[in-house]
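Methods — Computational structure assignment.
A single polypeptide chain was analysed. Its primary sequence is given first, followed by the predicted tertiary structure written as structure tokens.
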Amino acid sequence: MTSTRQKMDNWKDYIENKFVPKDLFTFTIDECDMTMTVTHKQSGTRFDFYFDGSDWTTLYDVHFSNDNTKGWSGEYQGSIKFSLNEVKIIDNYLSPAFDTGWVSKDIFLFDKHWKSKVYFNLDKTGAPFVYFSSELGCLSLILFPVFWTLGLLFGTTKTVTIYPVKKYL
């Protein structure tokens, strides 16, 4: 799903035009911290945008997540100046949340989140984004082989499918 309006001057315009119809989303803007959070009401997918400066022309971080899982998209970071080329790149980055859906396989040890494997499609194909939680602290990195073995033998897994926003349009 790409942005609909032809004329956009900054990332705020992009967001206001991408997330339509507006009644399907909740918009939270913090102009002091220059952040914008957009949550899809039906799927629960949350999009976080962080801006550099007060003119909304430079995006420095964007990611998506969902409260039903510990997995998330990872961060698309950098000093991303608004341009039509960058719009295409961000559209592509957000595509799993909008167009294809995504799956998070959350792995728990001792009832604490250890890691998630996030697949950016519903088929769980391709290399996953692997996210290690801090719930087990530095110990999980220092004793990685032990935690890996414990995860195979005793870990519990929760697989969560997040359907794309376009399913609800």
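Note: The helical segments are 11-18, 84-100, 139-142, 144-154.
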